[in-house]
Amino acid sequence: MTIIETASPNFDERALPVTMIVLHYTGMVDAASALERLCDPAAKVSAHYLIDEDGTIHRLVAEDKRAWHAGAARWGRIEDVNSASIGIELVNPGHEFGYRDFPEAQIDALIGLVGDIKERYAITRGNVVGHSDIAPTRKQDPGELFPWHRLARLRLALPRPTRNLMDPMWSDAGFLIALERFGYDVKDKLAAVVAFQRRYRPELIDGEIDGECRSILLALLLPKPQGDD
């Protein structure tokens, strides 16, 4: 795995051990624009890595430093997500500039990088998340086109459960309690449900809590979620 050193000045010291990987899209017109912003001291944003659409990997911030990629975010009990995570940006125009599929070369490079990081820090599958998972009121990335199933098949992320699904018939309040237990910030109910659907049921993102959503969430809370075969 070849990595180009492209240093960003935008980092500080970690306050927590690394237990998470957060995936983003750049949401800018091209890689050059994204790199310029992530390395601009005035922008005050950065990530540990950026992966271009051709699979080129740039390291912007050393892993032992706290990059500024998550913003106001939360996952479970972790509120300083920047301190606890490695942030990876994927070059993609995003929903604002012409959201499109992520190329094979880019995902191949991502799989190698995530696999390496996950193994070195013993990160659990449930802590490989998208920006929208940790900041549901603000973010949509990496979005509904991101191929989570490719990571899941290699045990690099949680799968979308598909086997032996059963609707627990929770009330909406019960679903939100379960969703919070899983990791999501549920202060904004609609945003939390949309973020969950964007990740685990991207073909229908309507913000409605239904039997399929309940069944998927119940399966995810079990010790060994199965799916994405």
Tag the structure with descriptive keywords.
single chain; 229 residues; alpha/beta; Lysozyme-like; 2 domains; 9 helices; 8 strands; 13% strand
What report would you give on this structure?
It is built from 9 helices and 8 strands. Helix 7 packs parallel to helix 9 (about 210-220). It is of the alpha/beta class. It has helices spanning about 30-40, 80-85, 95, 105-120, 130-135, 150, 170-180, 190-200, 210-220, and strands spanning about 5, 10-15, 20-25, 50, 55-60, 65, 85-90, 130.
CATH superfamily of the largest domain: Peptidoglycan recognition protein-like
Determine the strand fraction and express it as a percent band: 5-15%
Stated plainly, the CATH topology of the largest domain is called: Lysozyme-like
**Secondary-structure class:** alpha/beta
User: Can you give the mean pLDDT?
Assistant: 96
The neighbouring-strand order within the major sheet is 1-5-4-7-3-8
- What is the radius of gyration? 17 Å
Number of domains: 2
The topology string of helices and strands comes to EEEHEEEHEHHEHHHHH
Question: What is the top-level CATH class of the largest domain?
Answer: Alpha Beta
Distance between the termini: 27 Å
Number of E-type strands: 8
Can you count the helices?
Answer: 9
| CATH architecture grouping of the largest domain | 3-Layer(aba) Sandwich
Q: Low-confidence runs (pLDDT<50, min 5 residues)?
A: none
Largest sheet properties: 6 strands, mixed
The helix fraction, in percent, is 25-40%
- Give the overall shape: globular
